[in-house]
Amino acid sequence: MSSIFGNNILGNNATLVGSSSSTAPSIFPPLYDFPPFFTRYPNASTWTAQRAAWSSLILAYCKAHKLWQLHLSDALETELFHNAALGRRLKHQDAVEVLEFMAKEGQVDWIDESNKTGVNVWWKKPEEWGSVIFDWIDSTGQKGSVLTLYEIAHGDLTTAQEFHGMEEGMLKKALGVLVKRGSAQIFGSGEEMGVKFF
Amino acid sequence: MELGLRNVPSGAGLGALTRNSKFSQQYATHGERLKQTHAEQLSTQLSVFQAALLEFSRTHAKDIRSNPAFRAEFARMCTAIGVDPLASSSNKKGSFWAEMLGTSVNDFYFELAVRVVEVCRRTREENGGLIAVAEVKDRIQKQDEKIGGTGTSDVSEDDILRAVESLKPLGSGFTVFELGRRQMIRSVPKELNTDQSTVMEAIQVLGFVTHSMLRANLGWDRARVQTVIDDLLSDSLVWVDAQAEEKEYWAPMFIGNANK
Predict the structure, then answer these.
(1) Which of B60, B72, B253, B256 is 20 to 30 A away from residue A85, measured at CA?
(2) Domain positions in chain B
(3) Are domains B61-173 and B192-260 of this chain identical in fold?
(4) Are B101 and B78 in contact (CB under 8 A)?
(5) Residue A168 has pLDDT above 60, yes or no
(6) Where is the signal peptide (chain B) (predicted)?
(7) Is A50 in CB contact (< 8 Å) with chain B?
(8) Strand pairing partners for B175?
(9) Chain B residues whose beta carbon lies within 8 Å of the beta carbon of residue A30
């Protein structure tokens, strides 16, 4: 075989190019260094597998970088969707299709359903976030006290917590779960919005 | 007639006949005795051998399970003396080998076989049911790292080949074949035709192919190239990169092993 292809156009053996990301190499699956990963597969069953691989990458990436939201037009320019070393990127319409699939799975929800310009990314489900927040309240003896949403998401006390920096709309959704469970009550509105835990 | 009888030299008459049969009986008895002795010797040797093996397996069962190099050597030794450690493990009685090794070797390969099947099944949508043995090994090792496994995480390609071999009695349809210089596991009952194999080998060597590369290097006409590529695409054996100058066809089965 090598004799037939000894003098090919490339002049040497083509190899898969290594991932450009040195920051968090473990996030990117081997597929990320595989140029066709960035082209939608022509048949449905393989596209399903490809789409699933994209979903897990998106979740892992957002979790590692603590990205609460993806704004598509910006995100498409980042290493998540654009492998600069390969010179390959996922097309806008393919990315939308991946995100639509993720929305069905409850992994993301559209910030604007009509235009589909961005999503909230739930690498933990709202229920899980609710529990994480409640566990923190419980373990720090804050049951019965009132906190503002700002204190929860951006207060000094929560800097070490995984939910620190959480986007406001998402935080409300997570707290909504606790309200339903009967372990929190939300009152006030806007800047003044507070929550009491039981 | 009577005269004739009388002239027969003594010793060559009917008496001789009985005497001959007596001899042959003695020979037979002697032969039996020899056979018996041999059998006894053999069975003594066998029991000595069994005892030695038992001793060996008791001392080394742990190594056999945990050390891939040792395991490979052990398996090679088995092959050399004509014993297949997995051969009769599917019959109910349990193999001589299973008794000897307390099933640890068998268990090891069957557990591994289950994991190989899982990897093949899980990646089938991606790679069309063809995967490099090295890739299976990598994936299994990564799984082990993920769960923080320490135990049997050291698996060699040799182990994987034996594990696939152990599936044969089940009619699993898993086969190992060579594609170029790589050993591949096929988990779908499809055979590659000559053209398809040629293209896959080319991809293995070059990393990818394009229509014009195939036409230039193999002298195939447009229709032939188109047919092969379309077939490979519809079986998910190659993926297309449409962002190159000319469409490039890559094989997912070689991901991560391009330089091996």
Answers:
(1) B253
(2) 61-173, 192-260
(3) yes
(4) no
(5) yes
(6) none
(7) yes
(8) B186
(9) 255-256
